Amino acid sequence: MAEIDNKIKVDERLRHIAFIMDGNGRWAQKRMMPRTYGHKVGAENFRRVVEYCNEIGIKIVTVYAFSTENWGRPRGEVEAIMDLLSGYLDKCEREMEEHKIKYNFLGDMSVLTDELREKIERVEKLSSGYDINLNIALNYGSRAEIAHAFSVLAKKGLKEISEDDISGALYTSHCPDPDIIVRTGGDIRLSNFLLWQAQYSEFYFTDVLWPDLSSENIDEIVREFYRRKRKYGKV
Ligand code: FPP
Q: Pick the residue with more confidence: 233 or 167?
């Protein structure tokens, strides 16, 4: 990592950062606003965070946008999140050449509306040539992902299954494991996110609510990452 004039630049040790974007609802409630407003501001901040991570040289960003468990939220809230995603996908398509981001959606897209699924497929296809990666976990659950990977391998008729076979059949097969997983909003758990991929990830938990996560906070996360000694089980 280099830091020149207070501007951080990462090196190849920090290729992949993942975020559990928690705290939108509380952010809104603190302001006497509906939870859906928190998601709107959270979605705006998500765009800023991705832009900033790319700016400082992080090539792969993964975010947890909607879990398999989030369908249990009130219908209006689920619809509001899906609407935000739909609007976001329109923007991605319009601004594709400006951002040069390759989008990958992680999760089971089969349960989404045809309209949303088609938008996702279009954005993934149109952006497939770019090399800065943004992975958006949507209708994602890590256990479901692992079970899905085993089904894929079983269909191929594999009798013996290696760790590499499993990694290669996950939704994240196109990228290395996250170097660091960040959770905003104060809770200290993974909530069914990237359980397999987190083998040697560093973890960073902060009380900052997602809509408030700033570039200064990200700089601090990066500095903390570089303070950690990654030993991968060795001495
Ligand atoms: C967790 O906060 C957040 C979510 C379940 C949804 C995250 C969604 C977005 C940031 C918008 C998605 C849109 C795009 C474009 C990716 P919470 O509601 O659980 O917050 P709380 O813990 O304070 O209730």
A: 167
